[in-house]
Amino acid sequence: MIISTAILPGSHPSNNPAGNHISHAFLVHFKPSFHTVRVLTRDPSSAVAQALAAQGAQLRLFDSAREGLDLARSLDEALDGVDVVVNALPGKTSDQVKRAVVEAAARSRARVYILDEYGLDHRIAAVPGHEHPGWLEKGRVSIETRERLKGRKVIALYATLFLEFAITPQMGIDVAKNTYTCYGSPTQPFSTTAMEDIGRAVARLSILALDPSTAPTVLDEVRIAGTTTTTYAEIRDVVARVRGVPGAEIEVRDVGELKEEIRESGPGEKAFYEYMKVVIGEGKVDFSAGNVNELVNPGGKLWKWKTVEEHVRGLLA
């Protein structure tokens, strides 16, 4: 099966690491499966874009400042002849550009369209009635895209928290200072997935969705969980082991109080990671059941999922 694909990181690739990892997976890890990989970028001369070109990417200038027919024409040229469209546009992309991409995909011959998701399953609201505006926007785009691309395979991949984002001071985990703060139980399981593993999963889903023998196994909305689950306590223990220091005390705060703060502040007033702390504390980010890890990576034979310890060791190297 010969597959052509177009990937839309959209902005400068180095400012969109998820899109860069997705491109890398298509170009390197699953290169034999893809005849053509086109990467749309605002700056084809950048070091990151040139590195992708060296791996075999066909670079296409994607200037989201274009309007009307000019934007439509450039997208039509970029998507001409592709089988798969992978949307990895930044979250702040304008509605005009988002709709233009979907319209171009509808005009193309593409049979598979990967939605710009990759993170938390936003259908699980942190604070019902006070959802983060970004999650509401993703829900709207998903509905509109599926309506416009009826008859095509439209896939939403939810990968929980990026491993690279989960272990940060913003999320209450400061590896350098060995300090930890969580909302709810420190032993509450939650799932994380490294961006490089998300990229591989996107490539595998594209391959599976295009093959008539495996297409029925790919649902419209799927989850992966690279580490399966971890906890704040486990991460604390990993850091202690890697650094050779005593395990620190974990400061535990009331998740209900944080929820109330979000309600009182109004939608979008609290930082995105505050919403994430709520869904973790309430146990809504445990994707150990109902994920498609085995579908995309049977028996872990295609690649090794990146672990929390591997990431921590990288941070401390």
TrEMBL record:
The keyword Oxidoreductase applies. This is NmrA-like domain-containing protein. Residues 26-244 form the NmrA-like domain. Keywords: NADP, Oxidoreductase. GO terms for molecular function: oxidoreductase activity. It comes from the Eukaryota. InterPro entries: NAD(P)-bd_dom_sf (IPR036291), NmrA-like (IPR008030), NmrA/Isoflavone_reductase-like (IPR051609). Pfam families: NmrA. Coiled coil: none annotated.
